[in-house]
Amino acid sequence: MNKKTKERIARLYTTEHIPFRKKMIYQRYQIKNIGFYWLITELDEKKNLGFGYANLNNDNFAEWGYISIDELLENGAQLDNTWKPCTYAEAMKKITEENKMPN
């Protein structure tokens, strides 16, 4: 992630008033081969703690919550360096389209 993107990520608790569908998603971490992904909307850089949406290859049990970036990296997740910031609604459309594409 470039420094400019990192500087734009909202600090923890600063977007509580924004509905989930309208929250900006600044980063995506993923483990592609098993379909896991995490969408980061807020970040505490000192604690390396984010807030966002976690989907562990099951749309029915996906949820919003706090995410340890260190734990993601320790468990094999990778930052998607091609991710462009967009709203959650736009992110879900993009991910749905990606999932339709053949491997």
Summarize the structure.
With 103 residues, this protein is an alpha+beta fold.
What does the model show?
The protein is α+β, with helices and mostly antiparallel strands and 103 residues long. The chain has one domain. It is 24% helix and 33% strand. The chain is built from 3 helices and 7 strands. It has helices at 3-8, 69-74, 88-100, and strands at residues 24-25, 27-31, 36-44, 49-56, 63-68, 78-79, 86-87. It has a 5-stranded antiparallel β-sheet. A two-stranded antiparallel ribbon has the order 1-7. The protein is globular and about 40 Å long. The model has no long low-confidence stretch (mean pLDDT 91).
The helix-strand sequence is HEEEEEHEEH
Shape annotation? globular
Rg from Cα:
13 Å
Number of domains: 1
Please work out how many helical segments DSSP would assign. 3
Largest sheet: 5 strands, antiparallel
